[in-house]
Structure formats: structure tokens, C-alpha cells
Amino acid sequence: MLIASKNRSSIDKLKVQLSCEFEKKDLGEVRRTLGKKIERDRVKGRASLTQKTYLQKVLQKFLIGDEAKSVSSLLAPHFKLSARMSLKTINDREYMSHVPYASAVGSLMYAMVCIRPDL
Fold first, then answer.
1. The predicted structure's pLDDT at residue 104
2. pTM score, two decimals?
3. Which position among 38, 82, 102, 119 has the lowest Cβ density within 10 Å, counted as fewest Cβ atoms?
4. What is the rounded CA–CA span in Å between residue 71 and residue 67?
5. Which long-range contacts (CB under 8 A, 24 or more apart) does 90-95 make?
6. What are the boundaries of each domain within the chain?
7. What is the C-alpha to C-alpha distance for residues 119 and 106, in angstroms, rounded to an integer?
8. Contact status, residue 39 vs residue 50, Cβ threshold 8 Å
9. Which of these, 26, 52, 25, lies nearest to 37 by C-alpha position?
10. For residue 14, what is the enclosing H or E element?
11. Which parts of the chain sit beneath pLDDT 70?
12. What pLDDT is recorded for position 35?
């Protein structure tokens, strides 16, 4: 379980309550979650999420190496994803699972929509 709050005392109070009801192990500050690396700048009061390792694995999987050139582009604010856009039938999903291009684009779209790196 990941607990987040602006107030450290609230986190400590919740941990005490949980330990009264459940057997738990405190793993300390989170550094990674769901494949995302969490970086903090406590002086500036900022936190950021990166998926650099995930993106490197995707590029290796599809044999895209150092020759790939990065370009800075922001996701359009009006761009919205919905369940209606997903594949509907099992046959469609099975077919697309064998198309490497679609799989590569899907993997990169996941990272792009979740973290919005400049892909």
C-alpha cells in the first residue's frame, strides 16, 4: 500500500492505526511504483515520475537502438482516450498481439499517456 499526504503526522497516524488492525511491514519511502521511478526535490517541494527504464525496455524489445532520435512534443490538451477506442473482440486483440508495430506503438502510447514524456 502506498500512502501519500502533505502532512507527515497524518501518515504516521494512519500507519499506527493500520498496525493495530493488520500485520504490516514498513518499507520506507517509495522509490518505484508500477514501473515508475519517483524522484523528489525536497528543497523545491517537487516530485516527478519517470519511466526511463520502461521505455528503454520497450526500445530494446522492438530493436530500436541508439539510432533513434528524440523530438520534443507536448500532448495536445484536447487529446482524450476512452474505452470506446479500444479493440472490441477477442479476435481483434489476438490479431493485433502478433503485429509488432501495433504492439510497439501501444507500449509507447501507454507511457506517453500515463507520464507524458516527450515521445
1. 77
2. 0.43
3. 82
4. 13
5. none
6. 52-115
7. 13
8. yes
9. 52
10. helix 8-21
11. 63, 65-77, 79-81, 115-119
12. 73
